């Protein structure tokens, strides 16, 4: 219906462990570092949180329902494919994405230098202008598992408007 707006939130966490060679994928961008994310897919917490936000906004379930980690077909999968498949869902066809915003929480690696690349990749994946894509990164002040560099977390919010 005209004027219909929807909001969605998403969260994801993946375990982190030292690795040599390492490297993790966040927001579709490979960040070189001496760690790897433990996950069935590529472990991209940013894209997983954003997919859940999209799905939540239209009451279409969650990422685990769509792409179960018990399905070998999703092993090591590029999460950009999850984004494309979610964006193509009929449930989303009546809406356009207004903006998205993410909070990435990681003690290691330090993400400040990588924020511009992550933001640019999200603009591309979600077809949004730069003023509609927020990427924040922060540490966890050395507190708990995230602060001990044993995990990385992402929170996401998105807004949809009726086409
Ligand atoms: Mg995940």
Q: Structural class from helices and strands?
A: alpha+beta
Strand order of the largest sheet: 4-1-7-5-6
User: Measured on Cα atoms, how large is the radius of gyration?
Assistant: 15 Å
The proportion of strand residues reads 25-35%
Q: What sequence of helices (H) and strands (E) makes up the elements?
A: EEEEHHHEHEHE
Q: Which small molecules are bound? A: magnesium ion
Helix content: 25-40%
CATH topology: the name is 60s Ribosomal Protein L30, Chain: A
CATH class: Alpha Beta
Provide the domain count: 1
N- to C-terminal distance: 9 Å
Low-confidence stretches: none
CATH architecture: 2-Layer Sandwich
Profile the largest sheet.
Answer: 5 strands, mixed
Query: CATH H level: which superfamily?
Result: 2-C-methyl-D-erythritol 2,4-cyclodiphosphate synthase
- Counting copies of identical and different chains, the oligomeric state is single chain
Structure summary, number of beta strands? 7
**What's the tally of helices?**
5
Mean pLDDT across all amino acids: 95
Cα shape: globular
């Amino acid at each position: 219906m005209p004027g219909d707006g929807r909001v969605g939130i998403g969260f994801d966490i993946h375990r982190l462990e030292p690795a040599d060679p390492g490297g993790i994928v966040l927001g579709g961008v490979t960040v070189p570092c001496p760690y790897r994310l433990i996950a069935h897919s590529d472990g991209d917490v940013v894209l997983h949180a954003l997919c859940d936000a999209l799905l939540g906004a239209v009451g279409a379930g969650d990422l685990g329902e769509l792409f179960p980690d018990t399905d070998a077909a999703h092993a090591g999968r590029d999460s950009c494919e999850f984004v494309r498949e979610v964006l193509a869902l009929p449930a989303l066809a009546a809406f356009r994405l207004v903006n998205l915003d993410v909070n990435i929480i990681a003690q290691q690696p330090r993400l400040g230098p990588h924020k511009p690349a992550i933001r640019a990749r999200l603009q591309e994946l979600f077809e949004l202008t730069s003023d509609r894509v927020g990427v924040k990164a922060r540490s966890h002040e050395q507190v708990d598992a995230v602060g001990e560099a044993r995990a990385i977390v992402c929170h996401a919010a998105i807004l949809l408007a009726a086409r």
